[in-house]
Amino acid sequence: MTEIQAQKEASRVISQLRYDDNQYFWINDLQPQIIMHPIKPALIGKDASAIKDKQGKLLFVAFVDVVQKTEPVL
After folding, report:
1. pLDDT of 30 over the 70 cut
2. What is the pLDDT of residues 1-19, one digit of tens each?
3. Is the separation of the CB atoms in 62 and 51 below 8 Å?
4. Around 55, how many Cα atoms within 13 Å sit in the side-chain half-sphere?
5. CB of 15 within 8 A of CB of 34?
6. Does residue 53 surpass a pLDDT of 70?
7. Phi/psi zone of residue 22: left (φ > 0), alpha (ψ -120 to 50 degrees), beta?
8. 55-64: pLDDT as tens digits
9. DSSP structure class, residue 46
10. Is 15 exposed, middle or buried (0-12, 13-18, 19+ CB in 10 A)?
11. 3-70: CATH, from 3.30.450.20, 3.30.710.10, 3.10.20.30, 3.40.50.11750
């Protein structure tokens, strides 16, 4: 299996995972661009940096900030 095939298969499997009955996982990169979103597939490949929550917080930018503060970026 190539790296690209493995990434596609991982995305497929993760897209089917749920917790607390209806909560889901998605994948975004550090730009933040949506790599996989099981509920809103129209977001896939889109820049998510301007997406805000109900309080106006840049949601995906905040997710990237948390990752960058807690995990070393290679």
Report:
1. yes
2. 999 999 999 999 999 999 9
3. no
4. 3
5. no
6. yes
7. alpha
8. 999 999 999 9
9. S
10. middle
11. 3.30.450.20
Q: Would you say how long the chain is, in residues? A: 74
- Residue 59 and residue 49: Cα distance in Å, rounded? 8
16 closest CA partner among 4, 6, 26? 26
Mean of pLDDT over the chain: 95
In the numeric block, which tokens belong to residue 36? Answer: 């996989």
- Give the position of tokens 């896939």: 44
pTM, to two decimals? 0.84
Indicate the residue type of 39. I
